[in-house]
Amino acid sequence: MTKENHTTLPEFLLLGFSDLRALQGPLLWVVLLVYLVTLLGNSLIILLTRASPALHSPMYFFLRHLSVVELLYTTNIVPRTLADLASPHPRAISFQACAAQMYVFIVLGISECCLLTAMAYDRYAAICRPLHYSTLMSPQACMAMVGTSWVMGIITATTHSSLIFTLPFPSHPTIPHFLCDILPVLRLASAGKHKSEISVMTATVVFIMVPFSLIVTSYVRILSAILAMTSTQSRHKVFSTCSSHLLVVSLFFGTASITYIRPQAGSSVTTDRILSLFYTVVTPMLNPIIYTLRNTEVTGALRHMVKRQVT
Q1: Beta-sheet pairing, 91-94 with 174-175
Q2: Which of 250, 253, 255, 249 is nearest to 273 (CA)?
Q3: What's the rounded Cα separation, in Å, for the pair 117 and 148?
Q4: 159-180, pLDDT tens digit by residue?
Q5: Measuring CA to CA, which residue among 241, 308, 304 is closest to residue 54?
Q6: Measured on CA atoms in the order 300, 301, 302, 306, is the torsion positive or negative?
């Protein structure tokens, strides 16, 4: 039954924003501009963290990998979205292309979750256990954390994709979304989706709530260490090293929680698409901006690089 469905069902129909034609033109230019800024900002972060000796530390090692994830993440989604926005009618996507997009989407999303958790642990080790920092955050430990992030993403993506895309689908499936996200595709399945729904919810709890809890725990201990400091200048300096990461964590986990954990009964197709557009297109653009504007070490390295190029 499943095999027959896969052979007679070569494509899905992505609704995109074709039902909001008045917004398609403005959205096309906004998404294109945001995508270009995302490419520029994250490429700049990668270049700075590799070229500047001042940024050769575990925190910026993780930040570089985070920027790589953001570049791949947006490139997996935005070019297809731009093509859909340029078309007045919904465009088809093949079964294989939809499965591939979802697989990459999950791999990168889970990897980003784990990388943000590793960055929080790095701040905890630097502030709360400075004497053991070089051991806790050795190059081998950092590589192991990055490798684990990718492995967890691959395992989760393989499990979800195999469960979802072996389900039977209707003869003319239309996805009311601009990408092959987990929940919109899962809702199309006509039977046997209960196991996949359980898997999705389990992964949501494990890879959203557990990393978020670990990050909160790290920052509770960091806050205790900050309050124990007697110097106001020291407090400000320590807090400034954490503020950028805290803001990025709030953006990522906030939008992910609203999208995947909120009750689906009260949600609408338009709301789901707007939320998804924010965390798949806008958030990857904001991350390098936040780290550039709110981090003195990054801005200092940027000024130094600009001066060197000018002279």
Answers
A1: unpaired
A2: 255
A3: 12
A4: 888 888 888 887 778 888 888 8
A5: 304
A6: positive
